[in-house]
Amino acid sequence: MKYPRRLLVAALATFVTVPAAQAWGPLGHSIVAALAQRHLSPAAEAEVEHLLAADHTARLADIANWPDQIQDDPAQATLWQQTRKLHYINFRGGPACDYVPPRDCRDGECIVAGLAHYVAILGDKSQGDAARLEALKFVVHFVGDEHQPLHDGYRDDLGGNKYQVQFEGEGSNLHRVWDSGMLKTRGLDWQAYAARLDAAGPVALPPPAPPLDDPYAQWAEESCRITAEPGFYPDGHKIGQAYVDAELPVAENQLRIAGRRLAEVLNLALAP
């Protein structure tokens, strides 16, 4: 049975009151998926297992990176072209990071609209299992994407891809550092990293900001505001240990928030 969209939006709005490049890269996306899977309701877990059986897996982490991987699959070229702009949002209103759909999500081509679209398909049992499995893959991935700050930016730098930096003695860009560079400094695989973050206990969510009718827009605004914080774009384009010490906890907190919110999205969309 389809979960009514107005009820899903209302439930997510209530939930948040409780204290073209990849986003995160394979490591981060797998961590978000693993954190979410640890907190699925029994009903959602059963439905996830049912849908994932077609891919011969039961782990969300195994499908979390698929929406990025299809860009290299000629058989999925059309789907990639249809969905590639749904991985991010470019705020056009300056540092305020206020979401204005006609301006920031023209023709529904942004992550806010993309996430809403696939959540609706996932929760609609009149859709076939193949369509719902594809939707599950995009939902898992897009929730992760929304919480990588550089997928929700307002700067004209392609999400930090044009902001060149020196990191660990090599040339890189700020997007890549946030995707995976800082996370890899822990030296953990995704299973161990997810266990480490989950052991920290429930994550405190940012306070909601009105209007409360579009939680996915709020999440994008939250991430955008992180990019506007002093020091996010490093002075001198050099990233040293001081930057990692300051920003890695921010990145890890975003992973924890994404995992918690993904679990709640799936619990609501896949409720009986």
UniProtKB/TrEMBL annotation:
This is S1/P1 nuclease. Keywords: Disulfide bond, Endonuclease, Glycoprotein, Hydrolase, Metal-binding, Nuclease, Signal. SUPFAM superfamilies: Phospholipase C/P1 nuclease (SSF48537). InterPro entries: PLipase_C/P1_nuclease_dom_sf, S1/P1nuclease. The keyword Hydrolase applies. It comes from the Bacteria. Residues 1-23 form the signal peptide.
